[in-house]
Amino acid sequence: MNKNQKILLLFIGFCMVVVVGLIGFNVLMPKRDITPEDVEVAQRSVEEIVESQKDETAEKQYVNVYFIGKNEHNEEVYKAVKREYNKDIDGSKIRFAVTSLIRGPKPEEKQRGVYTEVPVDSEIINITEQPDKVIVNLNSAYVTGGGTESLYKRLYQLIKTVRLNSQIPVYLYIDGQKADVVGGEGIMLSQPLTNSSLEN
Question: Where are the domains of the chain?
Answer without folding.
Answer: 59-188
